Amino acid sequence: MNKTSRVSIAVALLLANPALIAVExxxxxxxxxxxxxxxxxxxxxxxISVIDSQSINRTRASHLSQLLHQAANVNYASGxxxxxxxxxxxxxxxxxxxxxxNPSVGxxxxxxxxxxxxxxxxxxxxxxxxxxRGPQGTLFGANALAGMIKLKPNEPTEQRTGSIAxxxxxxxxxxxxxxxxxxxxxxxxYRIAIQQHNSDGYIRNAFLGxxxxxxxxxxxxxxxxxxxxxxxxxxxxxxxxxxxxxGYDAFSLDNTRTTLSDEPxxxxxxxxxxxxxxxxxxxxxxxxITQVSFVDSELAYAFDExxxxxxxCDDTACEGWAYSSFDSYDRTHENxxxxxxxxxxxxxxxxxxxxxxxxxxxxxxxxxxxLRNYTFAASDFSSDYETTNYAVYGQxxxxxxxxxxxxxxxxxxxxxxxxxxxxxxxxxxxxxxxGAHISVEYTTNNDLLLYGKVAxxxxxxxxxxxxxxxxxxxxxxxxxxxxxxxxxxxxVLQGLIQSRLAVFYxxxxxxxxxxxxxxxxxxxxxxxxxxxxxxxxxxxxxxGLELEFNWYASDVLNLYGSLGLLxxxxxxxxxxxxxxxxxxxxxxxxxxxxxxxxxxxFQFAFGAEYQLLTQLSWTVDIEGKNKFKLSTRxxxxxxxxxxxxxxxxxxTEHWDLALWGRNLGNxxxxxxxxxxxxNDPRKFYATEPYYQYGTPRIFGxxxxxxx
Length: 707
Known about the structure:
mainly beta; disordered N terminus; 5-stranded mixed sheet; single chain
């Protein structure tokens, strides 16, 4: 029985009840769990975006990357079947090949740590996505230099509810999902959600005569049990399975959606995760929260390096020039994390000031094993990378007056890293890291929140495996970042307008920068192979603005949107001489003042929902980004773009129907690009840019039955 058949049978047995969307006469309060305590979004002194279930439903997103455009100053890079490399305020990775990855953006799903394996971040049965911008040095530590993303699923319900939903679209797009939720006993409730997403993709392989070499085949299953064995103890158990078998055939020699690969690649992932969270509140002065998670993943990523076939030059002027190679990376990824936290349950008097406090201990153990098979390598490459993080942290929130709150936090972390590979590269590294924040919040007479915050975050150093590098070039240092931020948020016009504005300045020291060393495959000229490694820039600065709003303009019209402005550039760049050179002529490149990669100077998302009839509404969404550098090692940029999406929604008590279209202008959106090598033998490997494009224009129909 194949996977689709299994899902069809499972869906037939499951039911659910996602909330119907209705235009209210005011904006409901949004509660975020992103900090140590649940709090109203408008009462948190931090730049946080919340993408709720209504927005997820409106975009028809099946993966986190399809939602990120809604958040100001958040971008992503593809280079795989999904955009799983995320940048917040210009900070974040763009790809991963041989080298171990120390992520800049943390990802949690119901407390389960999926950092570094973002392909598993599907949108299955989500209540909301919370995006925290800026270093989370107190909250999350080493893997949250740029920020953190929390995917919060819907909770089990006390009454039996359920739904079944389906989406059909062009290019064989099919999404089938179902949820069932309800009580088990008087003290426990469950929720089971499943989703199968399929698409042939938007690439035609002319050589193989196929339309599905860049396909999507993604199964997600999550179960959750909430149990309250006593009034003082509550337990939350979560199990999560992701089975992804996607193709990867995205780059064309002609920069079109038509490829010539004879060996299309793949992007696969099997992840099994478990999480347990307990809340014990028997003590009158504090609550004890324990979160433990375990994730076991098998990751397989491969691609046709030449993007063509051996006979492409037969009987032409380039006969004898063509090469053929295939590159594959198989990883096993395991991580165990534990967070033990004491949270005061009532205010204490600290130096005569009413205060609340948090004290915690954190442990994370991760092991990643890699096996690389490459056509032109003498033998397979293998490596083992193990890291262990221990941290203690605390936070004190002091109510200085009725309107002024002072928050201070500190995190002390020790990190041990061991690296071994079969090229006899060995590296053991232990370091002490620290993060902190101090913020002041002021609530005005009309209930607006003004805040100022200074925070320090960090990203651990490491080792480069490339044996061609000198021993002095193998190690790269820890990166640190100071974030200075101020903002205002609140509601006006009796709650009809909700807005959030933040301005920030980030100073990055010893910035970790990914570089590539070009190695000819045959002879002294391209075609070329690229050996990635990390080095440190001395300084960099990122500053900008974020604005988000939601406005119920009338009983029938809702307006919403976001705007991000960003300036991210190198202030000084200290790197290796063989990197700071143009690959075409060897001329030295001065990177001082150069824009950082994947950091557009502006991006926006604006939309409107108009209630045509009681049960019929029409939405129009517009999103856009300015052009941005695709890499630090070449001059190629993406193109600025504006996309238009629309949908007609018909809703009743039990039914939710939508006819929708995305990217109506059929724009080619660049999600990843290269610009300093040649890969086309028909042009004798002349240097030119190559791009991976996002989703073109697509239309579809979605239906959900809720009861």
